[in-house]
Amino acid sequence: MSYRDLRNFTEMMRALGYPRLISMENFRTPNFPLVAEILVWLVKRYEPLADIPTDTDLEQDRVFLIKAVAQFMATKAHIKLNTKHLYQADGYAVKELLKITSVLYSAMRTKTIDSLGPEEQQSGKFKFDLGSKTADLKVARQLASEIISKGASLYDLLGKEVELRDMRTTAMARPMEINETEKVLRAAIKEVIEQVQKTKDMLNNVASDEANLEAKIEKRKLDLERNQKRLQTLQSVRPAFMDEYEKSQEELQKQYDIYVEKFHNLSYLEQQLDDYHRMEQERFEETENTLRLMQNKLREEEKRLMKAAGSEDESDMDIPDEESSESETDERRPMKPHLSREFPIQGRSGLRIIGNMQGGDTEDENDSDDSEIDVDDDDDEEEEEEEEDNEEFNDGISIHPSKMTRGLRKMEPLEESDNDF
C-alpha cells in the first residue's frame, strides 16, 4: 500500500458519493467491517439488484461474503480480485478495492463529459494534471517503441510483396481438390473427438479419485482416533520406575542444595583469605616504609655527628706548634691497643686524668713539661662534650651504640697525650 493509492481511493469514494467519510488512518490496522460495508456499497452501485449477504459476525459469513463479491465482480465486470488481500482488510485490501472504484469513477467521468456541451468539452480537453499522467507517459513511450519496430518489420514484408504476389495468384488459380480437403477436415474432426474423449475420461477419473480420497480421509480419521485413545491410555498408566525416579529427583535436589552451600562457603573463605593477604601486604609495605624512614633518619644523625666530630678536630688543631709537632710525631707512630683509665687528682675539683697502663715512647723531659697543659685542655674539652651530651639527651635524640663506639675511636688520638701518666 502506498500513500498515493490510499489518497486516490478516498478521493474516488468521495466523488462516487459514499455517505461515510473515509480517513487515511482507517486502514493502518485491519478493519473488516469497513471493508465489508464498502464492498456491499460498490456492488450495489454497480448492480442495484445484486443479492449480496451482509452478515459478518462469524468467520464463515465473512468468507462467504468475500467469495460472493469476488465471483460477482469476475462474472459481471470482468475484474479479478484477490480474496486473501480483501480478507486481510488492511492496506492490501485498498489495492483490490481500487480496481472496482477506478472502473466506476471512469464511467462517471465519461458520463459527465458526454453531458457537457461542445464548448465545455473543448475547454476541458486542455485541462489535465501532469502529475497523474506519469504512468500514461511511460505506457505511451513503450507503445511508440513498439510501433517503430512493427513499422520496420512491416516495411521489410512489403518489400517481399512482389515475389509473394505471384505465388499467391498461382495458388489461388489452382483448383482445390475435394479429396484432400475432406481428408484434412476428417483429421481435424478426429482430433477434436479424441480431445473430447480424454476430457470425459478425466471427468470420470475425477469422480473415482474423489471416492479414493474420501476413503483415504476416513482411514486417516480412524487412525487418528485410535492413536488418540492409545495416547490417553498411556497418559493414565503410571510408569514402572516412577517412584524411584521421584526419589532420585529429591536426592539430587538435596545434593544440589549441599553443593550450593559449600560453594558459597568456599567463595566466602577465598574472599577472606584474599583480604588477609592484602592486609598483610599493606602492613609489610608500611613496615618497610617506616624502616626506610628510620634508616634515613639514622644516616642523617650519623652525618651530623660526623660533622660535629670534624669541627672538634679542627678546634684541636689550634694548640701551639710544640704540641702540634708532638701530636704529629705521635700520629706517625703506629696505634697500639690500650686500656683507658680515669681517676681524679687531689686538690682539683672535677679534674680527671685519662691514661693507660702502657708506657709511652716519648722522652721524660717533654712529658713533664706538657703534662699539666694537656690535663687542663682535656678537662675543658671533656666538660664541653658533657654539656653537648646533656643537651642532646634533653632534646630526646637517641644515639645508636655503634655510633658511640665510633665517637670513642675518634677521641682516642686525643687521649694519647696522657700516656706519660
Rg from alpha-carbon coordinates: 66 Å
Strand/helix succession: HHHHHHHHHHHEEHH
Beta content comes to: under 5%
Mean pLDDT across the residues is 76
**How large is the count of helical segments?**
13
Describe the protein's topology.
Blueprint: H1 3-16, H2 32-46, H3 59-77, H4 83-88, H5 91-115, H6 118-125, H7 134-159, H8 161-173, H9 178-236, H10 242-316, H11 321-332, E1 341-344, E2 352-355, H12 364-394, H13 401-415
Antiparallel strand pairs: 1-2
What this model shows, in words?
A two-stranded antiparallel ribbon has the order 1-2. Helix 2 (about 30-45) runs parallel beside helix 5 (about 90-115). About 75% of the residues lie in helices and about 0% in strands. The protein is mostly helical and about 425 residues long. The model is unreliable at about 320-355, about 360-375 and about 395-420 (pLDDT under 50).
List keywords for this structure.
two-stranded antiparallel ribbon, 421 residues, mainly alpha, 2 strands, single chain
Q: Can you summarize this structure?
A:
This protein is mostly helical and 421 residues long.
